[in-house]
Give the backbone structure.
Amino acid sequence: MLVTTSAASVLAVVFTLAVAGKATASGFSEFRRSAGRLWPGPGQLSPRAQHVLAVGVLVAEAAVAAAMVLAAAATALTLPSAVPLTPAFAAAATLLAAFAGAHALALARGVPATCACFGRAASRVGALGLARTGLLFGASVVGILAPPAGSGGTAPALAALAVLAGCAVGLLLVNLEDVVALFWGAPARPTRLGG
């Protein structure tokens, strides 16, 4: 149960911050452009198709974020979850696999694309972003395979600790480029929007 709670908390933080960053006018505009650049299909997307794709991704991310927030909160408060977690984790895994595929294809093609994954910054698609997405995909798979939250009696303090640990890991992953730059002096820092 604690593993499921932590995984839900990690994904709740990451997807919530991704949606919040993209929900601003400038964040959505940059995300729409990056979605067009990362489009793995044939040809280029028209501006209207870019808009539809970006809205679809944003709605899917918001649904996953809401499910994970509800699940993590219910677990921390030791309430039965009103959200079936396996479909929520499966939806997160599907989105993350699509993101990883688009990024990997852009790298393989040598496309110098950026991703406004969190709306607030556009970072060059690279190994660090793929690693983050892989870790998040792993959290989704753990959530699918682990016993569901609420399936066993867990002390409220332990459940709250699992939520806090998951939130800390989620914040670390959202700010991964900055953390790497802090400790290893990564040369390619994210490009801040409007700057």
Notes: Residues 187-195 have pLDDT under 50 and may be disordered. Residues 2-192 form one domain. Helices lie at 2-22, 25-37, 47-76, 85-109, 127-145, 156-174, 176-184. DSSP finds seven helices and three strands in the chain.
